[in-house]
Each structure stands twice: as C-alpha cells, then as structure tokens.
Amino acid sequence: xxxxxxxxxxxxxxxxxMSVVLSLLGVNRYLSANGLQLGxxxxxxxVVGFTGAIVSLLMSKQMAKWSxxxxxxxxxxxxxxxxxxxxxxxxxxxxxxAMPEVAVYEGExxxxxxxxxxxxxxxx
Length: 124
Known about the structure:
Elements: H1 2-25, H2 27-33, H3 38-68, E1 71-72, H4 79-95, E2 103-104, H5 115-119
Antiparallel strand pairs: 1-2
C-alpha cells in the first residue's frame, strides 16, 4: 500500500511542478494560439507518464534478474545461502516488511566504488 501511495504522490508532484513551470513560462498562450489547451496537454502527460512509470516499475525487477543472471534462493543449498536468507529475514522482520526475494549472482559489483573491496578477495 505504501509504494502505491508513493507512486501516486510522486507522479502527482511531477504533474504539479510541470503545470506550474508551463504556466510560468507562458506555454498556455503558445498552445492556445495553435488550438491546444494546457489542460489537455496535462491530461495527456498524466496518462503517458503513469503508463510509462508503471510499465517500468513492473519490468525492473525481472530485468535486473535477467541482466545479472541472478539465482533466486528458494531453498538455501549451502551454509552461506542459509546465513544470507536468515539475515535478510531478520532485517525484514525488524523493519516490519514482508520477506523479499533473495538472489545471488556471480561477478564483481557494477559500482565502481565497491571494486577496491573485491580487489583483495580475487584469487591470484
């Protein structure tokens, strides 16, 4: 429920900022001269923006798994995986949220700031 409220609030805030900026810039006079209205543009932007955002939101989790070739841990098969799942469970419980999917992937992190952490752990 919280993420739906945040999703709606973010999109409505973007629409509010867009309407204020377009009004301050006088875009409504330009649109009116060409037979359009600012309200129509705002409704169109709302529909396109919400649609794009929801499609992106629905695709992002699966795309992240595919792009990293992540393996979702359904049943831990090693002590390390068990520790990882238990740690995530404890953190989720302490934050009072549902247990998220836990996945692992092979390879170095994509964040350049984490590379020095892994440079020491590389086999020779």
